[in-house]
Amino acid sequence: MNRETTINLLLALVLLGAPMLAVSLGEPFYVTLATRIVVLALAAVGLNMALGLGGLLSFGHAAFFGLGGYVSGILATHAFNAEPLFAGIPATTSMPLIWVAAVAVAGLIALPIGAISLRTSGVYFIMITLAFAQMIYYFAISWPAYGGEDGLSMSMRNAFPGVNTAKPLPYFLICYAALMATLLLFHVVEGSRFGSALQAARQNGTRLAAVGIAPFNIRLVAFAVSAMITGFAGALYADLNRFVGPSMLSWHMSGELIVLIILGGKGRLFGPVAGAMIFVFFEYVLGGITERWQFFLGLILLGIVLFARGGLLGLLSGKPRHV
After folding, report:
1. Does the predicted model carry a pTM greater than 0.90?
2. Tens of pLDDT along 169-179?
3. How many Cβ atoms are within 10 Å of 104's Cβ, its own excluded?
4. 263: buried, middle or exposed (CB in 10 Å: 19+, 13-18, 0-12)?
């Protein structure tokens, strides 16, 4: 077992053990805090598949995160009011069904966005993904049926069979299991022929095309899968807060996801997890001391970009990996 694998295992155990310790000490707030880390890490794992493996710096993944949240909020609201959706489709509060719907919507929206955006590269790809996300953001704030600018409150958390999701710890365990399953998927994809082709497309698309593999198709599939994972995280985030609003769709959220990956380590399996831990630590611990906690986060980010481009995991594992 190499050093990075050991660190990954320690991160997973700390993330699982801390909420259980908090419950035993009668501090449920820290369980919610850990759940926030897990859900943000899950969203960043989705972006890491496009950015870390495929080199696709999307500045519009907040769109998929917010879409997943709105799918959860809209379905829950209609179910609570006993109102069918459009065309008589019944609503539901079942988490597994909502997750499937969130993943499907994110994937379906990502396909045309990716098909257009991937015809560009570099700064143009960044700008066009941002433009699509902002279009969806402004559509949400001008949609009064679902709260418009004020967002949409959910009266209760959605249901998971056999689990009391109203309690913090069971809901944390659901989110934790989702994160671990997604990390396993990332690991499988990274080691698969598809993952190798995606990384080859990042390094030199022309050479990949020369051996008969179309880089565009590889990147489009990776972009869609990445969006689906991020949409899944958005559905969990809406249930965590029992609220969904346009802030989930804003470019600030896209920036946060990129920051999480850079902090933890781009392309690394547990990079988003480490990044989410650092981010939430600064947000809640330093945020309680000073309103200018972002200044200190910015200093850490500056140091990592200048001196540790492998992120925190690269620094700890001692293996530089510039992907």
Report:
1. yes
2. 999 999 999 99
3. 13
4. buried
